[in-house]
Design brief:
The strands form three sheets. Strands 1, 2, 3, 6, 7, 8, 9, 10, 13 and 14 form a ten-stranded mixed beta sheet that branches. A two-stranded antiparallel ribbon has the order 4-5. The chain has a two-stranded antiparallel ribbon with strand order 11-12. The protein is 17% helix and 36% strand. With 173 residues, it is α/β, with parallel strands linked by helices.
């Protein structure tokens, strides 16, 4: 179950943070998933026009057990901002939903937009692109990324709603 939050309220509470523990992602991402509000601990993947690492991630367990219950994770993908290939489509989106991921955020493109919209999963990306990636087995996981100029680290918490997306060094709600 997603905790109740509003990114605007989180920004109001943390607007004076100068430590870098609270960050706001640029408002360039579009909503493609069936879930508008989602949050969870971040898992990172870096790849460029090859979604082999994305596939491996969404086919793995997308949640963690905590004393408070099961918490879905958020996969953040640094696709280099490429608008030439889709890093997530209907099949991989369905795998992410089936495996308990709370959301996927892609600095790049998705495809199969109508299929993604029907999933119980939050999905944000720059645009849609029908062309798939080539599978070269490239990519890196679990590293700090810069997404649209904002640092995203494994274990950060990402909060997304209709107003935008924010990151925190730890769980806020």
């Amino acid at each position: 179950m997603t905790p109740s939050f509003a990114t605007c309220d989180l920004c109001d509470a943390h607007k004076n943070d100068v430590s870098g523990a609270f960050r706001v992602l640029s408002p360039v991402f579009r909503d493609f998933g069936g879930v508008r509000q989602f949050c969870g601990p971040v898992v990172t993947v870096k790849c460029f026009e090859d979604n082999s690492s994305v596939k491996a991630a969404v086919e793995s367990v997308g949640y963690q057990e905590t004393p408070a219950g099961r918490v879905g994770k958020v996969l953040v993908v640094d696709g280099g901002g490429s608008l030439r290939r889709a890093l997530l489509g209907g099949n991989l989106g369905a795998a992410a939903a089936r495996n308990g991921w709370a959301g996927v955020v892609i600095d790049g493109c998705v495809r199969d937009v109508s299929e993604l919209a029907a999933l119980g999963l939050g999905i944000r990306a720059l645009a849609s692109m029908p062309l798939p990636t080539e599978k070269r087995g490239e990519g890196q996981s679990d590293l700090a990324l810069q997404i649209q100029g904002v640092w995203v680290r494994p274990g950060d918490w990402l909060y997304a709603d209709e107003d935008g997306m924010v990151l925190a060094a730890g769980r806020l709600v």
